[in-house]
């Protein structure tokens, strides 16, 4: 089996607020909230890149679907990496995230490994690293 990730779902407390952050604040394209006609079905999808989508789904709905209890969220469970094409793009994304309501936890800085990165938390506390790696080339 070849590993393949197609959807990354993050749990949110307030789906409308999370939608506004990613759509209006960061400018990510979405068709908005879909599946509202189904109990526990409301979700918002964002196309990130070929073959990968971000889904925002209420934490209580994830718990319902998986049969697990909703536990206290922890921002240090994982980080999400948003790799960009330049140092200036790191700065731009961090400024845009902060203007949209993100909390900057680590301002952009040169890293020990030769890159440039910073961290922010979205309104639900999910930790994003915005990073430029000089070894990785991305289409702009």
Automatic annotation (TrEMBL):
Pfam families: Glyoxalase (PF00903)
Residue intervals of the VOC domain: 4-133
Chain ranges passing through the membrane: none
PROSITE patterns named among the record's database cross-references: VOC
CDD domains noted in UniProt: VOC_like (cd07251)
InterPro entries referenced in this protein's UniProt entry, alphabetically: Glyas_Bleomycin-R_OHBP_Dase, Glyas_Fos-R_dOase_dom, VOC_core
Name assigned to this protein: VOC family protein
Organism, scientific name: Paenibacillus mellifer
